[in-house]
Specification:
By secondary structure, the protein is of the alpha/beta class. The chain has a single domain, classed as Alpha-Beta Barrel (TIM Barrel). It is 41% helix and 12% strand. Strands 5-4-3-2-1-8-7-6 form an 8-stranded parallel beta sheet. α8 packs parallel to α9 and α12 packs parallel to α13. The N terminus is likely disordered.
């Protein structure tokens, strides 16, 4: 009898049931998507925060600015925000961090906006610590944005266990919350020269999320078509497909046509780089016609300074053509014709 039992156990492991939940079927994913309507929005950090820690730590959590700026999003016709977390904010104050997530979700719900939370990120600054965050370097794109966990995971042998508890705690707390639309497990794995070092965390976070069996779909966005091994794994382990594309309309069309062949809901969770001819005017009609969700980078130009070009040295005047972002802090749009266009296409 030993071998049949072992065989059955192996089948459960391979099917994902040991981890609590297998990947959604295409039918389940598409049924979920039909209930959402056309999802459109922005990657959101309040203009008063230079990075994820400044957004979520108690001393600098800024519900007044969040409320005001989500109001700009609602008035523009947006209904979803993609919002990055950081494990250090949870690690230093678990109960407070979750309370602030509740506050954020209350404010988003007030403005009829759902949320896609992002756990991990391989992009930008590798060093970080709790407490006051550095001021932005004037004119430098994303000068304070933080990786999570970045290279610390290679130096701290206990961190993987900490991250497991963190992910499970957050998903367990919000896995039945209708205000949370999607769990985005890992932003751009392998980026900033992490490469294959990202594999252990990528595989683990999928297992951790599945163990909690959230009612929301999970996803890990495709961002570099040259990363074929990562892409295959991310596609196989995502309930819905998300991707990033900051290129022109021909590139966006190619990405959409390729990814729609998987017969799953499709959301572009990062786009809109004006100097690359990735704009609302060129891309939103294409995505709406294909029923592809559209989440651009940046809402309000603030301390993250992503209206400035990536790779610049700083000290330059504000660019005539903003790189990302839509509004100034007082709600004035960078380009009124652009926001009028967004309102028009989202209201149809």
């Amino acid at each position: 009898m030993r071998y049949p039992i072992l065989f059955i156990a192996l089948m459960f492991i391979l099917s994902g049931h040991v981890y609590g939940q297998a990947a959604w079927s295409a039918e389940k994913a598409n049924a979920w998507y039909q209930q959402q309507g056309w999802l459109r929005g922005a990657n959101f950090i309040p203009s008063s925060a230079v990075n994820q820690l400044e957004m979520w730590q108690e001393a600098t959590f800024d519900p007044q600015t969040i409320d005001r700026e989500l109001g700009y999003a609602q008035a523009t016709g947006f209904n979803i925000m993609r919002v990055y977390l950081h494990h250090v904010a949870w690690q230093q104050d678990r109960a407070g961090f979750k309370k602030r997530l509740q506050q954020y979700l209350d404010l988003a719900q007030k403005h009829q906006i759902k949320t896609m939370f992002v756990f991990f990120d391989d992009c930008w600054r590798d060093s970080y610590q709790a407490g006051p965050q550095p001021q932005p370097i004037p004119g430098v794109h994303n000068s304070g944005w933080l990786k999570d966990p970045g290279g610390l995971i290679d130096r701290d042998s206990t961190l993987m266990d900490t991250l497991s508890i963190y992910v499970k705690d957050i998903i367990r707390t919000f896995k039945d919350d209708d205000r949370v639309a999607i769990w985005d497990l890992y932003n751009e794995p392998g980026h900033f020269k992490h490469g294959a070092k990202s594999w252990p965390l990528l595989k683990n976070v999928v297992a951790w999320a599945r163990a909690e069996a959230p009612k929301q779909p999970i996803t890990i966005g495709i961002w570099n078509k040259e990363f074929t091994d990562f892409n295959q794994y991310q596609l196989e382990n995502s309930d819905i497909i998300t991707f990033h594309n900051y290129r022109d309309s021909a590139s966006m069309r190619e990405a959409i046509d390729t990814l729609l062949t998987y017969n799953r809901p499709l959301i572009c969770s990062e786009y809109m780089k004006r100097p690359n001819n990735s704009t609302f005017a060129t891309h939103l009609p294409m995505m709406k016609a294909a029923n592809v969700g559209a989440i651009n980078w940046g809402l309000v130009a603030g301390k993250s300074q992503t209206n400035y070009p990536q790779g610049n040295k700083g000290g330059e005047p504000e660019p005539a053509i903003w790189y990302h972002d839509i509004f100034r802090t007082d709600g004035t749009p960078f380009d009124k014709e652009e926001t009028d266009f967004i309102r028009k296409i989202t209201s149809r």
